[in-house]
Amino acid sequence: MKLGIENRKQVIWLAVLGGVALLLLVYEFWPSSSSGAVNSAPAASAPAKPGVRRTASGRMVPVVEPRLDPTLDLTRLSKSEDIKYAGNGRNIFVAGSVAVIETPKRNGTANPTEDAGIHQPPPVPPPPPINLKFFGFANQPGETKKVFLSQGEDIFIAAEGDIVDRRYRVLHISATTVDVEDVLNNHRQSLPLTQG
Asked: Burial of 179 by CB count in 10 Å (0-12 exposed, 13-18 middle, 19+ buried)?
């Protein structure tokens, strides 16, 4: 029986996938020395020596374990019993043993000749001026009234209620001025119509 080219490719792919699946099954269920030693009982053929471990390079080195002496050392115990606590004379369990705190002689300022009055915070700086320029109208019949505003090289077209430059809201448009609010600083300003 002769197979076509497409059928041969399919057979080859099936053989490759079957081989990979077989390798995965063997890897998963075959007892290995690293995982089997942890999960199963220790092998009788290679008993581990106590006090020896294998380094990352594979060399066997002896393990030095600290020796713990469970017996009670009476000389150390008697030395610790002889220590007396000597505090500053204050007994926290007696109500009258609190140290007396003197009344302060000054109010704590560095210079006692300064005015001892209440210090006022610095005045709040005025909000920055709105630097938009109003230079014309854009009126179309049947549409809302719009104005041209500029800031440096940027030109904006806005109607009442629009926000310009993500900061300024156009409040009111009249024949000679535009009322604008700086929404970041809560500041309002009227922009006059400029020629030029």
From this structure: middle
